[in-house]
Amino acid sequence: MKPYSIALARPQDLPQLAAIELAAAQLLAAHAPASVLLETSNLDDLREAQARGRLWVALAGDEPVGFAHVKVLEPGVAHLEELDVHPAHGRRGLGSALVRAVCAWASREGFESVTLTTFRDVPFNQPFYAGLGFTDVATADLTPVFREGMQDEARRGLDPARRVVMRCALQRAGNIPAASRY
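-> structure tokens emitted (182 positions)
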């Protein structure tokens, strides 16, 4: 087995990310409409994120097998737009390692928090992120950016009752998820 590592994405990694995203989406087949499961991240968005140092890959040797894509939607907040690990490489801690890399970067860059949206009732979604220090954001506390994002998800067919915005505050020392083996 090739050793795994987490690194900033390279330009040559970008063409492989859609296949990873589509394979990982199949794990959500019982939870999301088929149209959403066939969506992939916009290649231009990924190019921009890679150029700005906001795209990480999990590598098996030199081959991307997972990725984390961050956007800045609001001042002081790094938003984990997408996190995917190819199922053939799942359950090895790569998702956790990617989230830790994002949180460490966000902390170094002076962000106050990292946010994301995910499924509330899927065991490997909300509970996974909760285990890494993320907490649910109450609907009443959503900023306009996140209200709009949730409305967009609903327009695309995702049930808002099954979705949640989560946040990991970074300003407190020790709140960055600890490293684990993968």
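The two ends are 12 Å apart (CA to CA).
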